[in-house]
Amino acid sequence: MSKILFVMTGVDHWTLADGTLHPTGFWAEEAVAPYRAFKAAGHDIVVATPGGVVPTVDKSSLAPEVNGGQEGADDIANGLEAMTELRHPITLEAVDLDEYAAVFYPGGHGPMEDLAVDAASGRLLIDTLGSGKPLGVVCHAPAALLAAVHEDGSNAFAGYEVAAFTNAEETQAGFADKAKWLLETRLVEAGVHVRAGEPWAPNVVVDRNLVTGQNPSSSAPVAVEVLKHLAG
Predict the structure, then answer these.
(1) Main-chain dihedrals φ then ψ at residue 145, nearest 5 degrees
(2) Do 73 and 32 touch, CB atoms closer than 8 A?
(3) Proportion of the chain in helix, strand, coil states, percent, rounded to 5
(4) Is 166 helix (H, G, I), strand (E, B) or coil?
(5) pLDDT tens across 159-206, in order?
(6) Are 190 and 156 in contact (CB under 8 A)?
(7) Other CB atoms closer than 10 Å to residue 86's CB: what's the count?
(8) DSSP one-letter code for 9
(9) Beta-bridge partner residues of 204
(10) Secondary structure string (H, E, C) spanning 196-231
(11) What is the predicted pLDDT for the residue at 20?
């Protein structure tokens, strides 16, 4: 039985352009759906966050309207309750990549606040990319790729094709004109090739050992692709 590392945001807010602290964290479906898939395949999960803080769920991700109704919302809430590993995270500095078969980053707006500038996470991403181990990253979590910078200032993911939360989706979500920066724009500026799909529809891009998903509905398909890599 192998272990899969979940790297998750440690913040409960996202600082907007006007200084407002928007309550957020990780997006529930993007943690629960892959967790269930990986556990069903027989893998153990370890959670790591900046500082080893217990990750905060974005409460808006628990609402019925983003989970297909109350039944879906209840299912996601039950899934979160079953993720006991969330209560005992390790620090990013304590991660030994050799202990893990794959690394997975759930999204939510939280990574825009901390993982986008977290050097320990950036080093882990560079090491995972170089290891050939499957690296799954979903929705806003590709913000973490921005911290994966070599000593010469170049981004380790420059030239890679990825899916990530798009400017169109951020606009429809009502945050594009409030954000300090937009994920799709910043990734492109770093030399990453963003392959945007239709807003809110599943979109998964596989480039070498990197598996990325555009939005919450892409999280389960990303997990499937990660498991394919592990089986291969």
Answers:
(1) -60, -25
(2) no
(3) 45, 20, 35
(4) coil
(5) 999 999 999 999 999 999 999 999 999 999 999 999 999 999 999 999
(6) no
(7) 21
(8) -
(9) 213
(10) CCCCCCCCEEEECCEEEECCHHHHHHHHHHHHHHHH
(11) 97
How far apart CA 104 and CA 107 sit, in angstroms, is 10
Q: Mind listing the pLDDT tens digit for each residue in 113-171?
A: 999 999 999 999 999 999 999 999 999 999 999 999 999 999 999 999 999 999 999 99
For residue 83, what are its two tokens?
A: 């993720």
- Give CA–CA dist 154/180, Å, rounded: 22
The tokens for 223 are 């997990």
Q: Which residues, listed in sequence order, are joined to residue 213 by a DSSP beta bridge? A: 138, 204
User: Model pTM?
Assistant: 0.98
Q: Give me the amino acid identity at 33.
A: A
For residue 28, give the nearest of 97, 108, 87 by alpha carbon: 108
Model pLDDT for residues 5-49, shown as the tens digit of each residue: 999 999 999 999 999 999 999 999 999 999 999 999 999 999 999
Q: Which helix (H) or strand (E) holds 102?
A: strand 102-105
Please state, as a whole number, how many other Cβ atoms lie within 10 Å of the Cβ of residue 74.
Answer: 13
